[in-house]
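task queued by scheduler; priority normal; single chain, no ligands, no partner chains; default sampling; output format set to structure tokens
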Amino acid sequence: LLAHSFLQANKSCVRPLFVPPGRKRTRISTMQTLIRRNASAAARAARTVAAAPASSRSMATGKDIIFGNEARAKMLMGVDRLAEAVKVTLGPKGRNVILDQTYGAPRITKDGVSVAKEIEFADRATNLGAQLVRSVASKTNDVAGDGTTTATILTRSIFREGCKAVAAGMNPTDVRRGIEMSVKAVVEELTNMATKVEGTKSIAQVATISANGDTQVGNLLAEAMEKVTKDGVITIQDGKTLNDELECVEGMKFDRGYISPYFINDAKTQKCEFEDALVLLVEGKVSNFQQVFALLDHCAKMSKPLVVIAEDVESEALAGFIVNKLRGGLKVVCVKAPGFGDNRKASLQDMAILTGAQLVSDDLGLKLDKVEPSMLGNVKKCVVGKDDTVLLDGAGSSEAIQERIQQIRASIDNATSEYEKEKLQERLAKLAGGVAVVKVGGSSEVEVGERKDRFVDALNATRAAVEEGIVPGGGVALLRASKVLDSLDGVLNQDMKVGVNIVRQACQEPCFLIAQNAGSHGAVVVQKVIEAGGNMGYDAYNDKMVDMIEAGIIDPVKVVRTGIQDAASVATMMTTTEAMVVQLPEDSKASGSTPDMGGMGGGMGGMGGMF
């Protein structure tokens, strides 16, 4: 049928060939031969397509390029929508955001970066803007640990005004230069305004503000930091009660307990407790009891207990320790060394410095049977449980301990992976201060999760405040620091002045939104704060103007500085964007459905024009 219809449509192309006399004249055409070949090829193609799976017939989607104001407008749409979701958490009267999760119960939080990380848009062009702002919040969280909401709204403000300026015909590069110069000036002014954090009261105030005005959170973290010092480790965990709990461990604690329960000497607590104990540190395994017999004899004569910390104590040696403990009344306990590989070796070296012992190691050429009593360390108290061990008041010299602390701090600065940095910080805490564990209480899993987010933010803000100092909170610091921008007007061209005005306006945004979330008129409050001067600012919790420092409404300099620097960096990059390349959405109909072969006949009818 296909060949016949094609033949009818192309009769004019058919002409008889010359046939010699004596032969039967036949109407044969070159076109007829082509028709037969095309018909056969079309039939084969139809069979092949019909037999092929749908997935192999999917169409390539390609990419789209968007230019100029249209590209920036699409990014701004994503930035706006993300910022609108995040800004409601700002201030003491900020609201919660509920997040749907792929597993478990929904999560309720006031943490800006947690909200930002959950936002993903279907439109790729819009999602580009959201992803860039999300990177600002994440970076601020990594560096300062708090201020992610402020960084997000500053990014939105700078980018929005930058888009307006570029659309009005300003030079994007000059606008960017103006913004960068302004941010640099504001950061220098913030550093000059900073005051050092002194005393538990200031630490509690910083933590309280970061926890959205929750004084219980602030006081608990201040107590924890006072007990373990600024070098100590404070960890936040889910509690199992309705109330928050604080558990502090001074000295060195590690997560290894006694090897055998036969070492227990307190049946009530199921622990082994010694006072004024000697410590033997072995990097390898203790396999032969005869190697340590002389040391045990020395301890027995001095009537002192012995704590053996080694990679492992094998069966023969362990049996010897247990028999002497049960029958001979020898005070001894064996504990496995914490960690693995290089981390275990480093932890044992830390213990050696803390206790004044010499580490028995093949690397140092020291064998266990050559150890003398003078190589043993000493601790005032040792408590060994089933899963952990605590060494208190080691006999190591303070100079050696301080030198080791400086060495670990240098290693932290040079560490590249988060895991390595975390392990180094744990080692630092065990040597320098201690470990405090805050157990967050609540009546439900959702409530515990929300309060835990606030504890983590408050803890990060407290550490940042101790590191670089504090400034007035509530957005007042940025407003005061923005006054320095008046001195830049004389040295800039017109387009760069627009960049300065963009930063000046962005500095008002945090104060504006804090007041707005508290139910007040943001513009009116900002104007009052500007006119008041000094440390005067708006107390959103009590709805009145107060001295922010005296009222305890303070922000860490590091948080404010990091927020505006990261915001300006990403916002200026987006402002100077002139083209956007995005993946086109997949056509589900083209990729998932079988092609309609019914229209083949109609389409093939036009093949006459191909010849």
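post-processing summary
- The chain has 22 helices and 17 strands.
- The CA atoms of residues 353 and 396 lie 6 Å apart.
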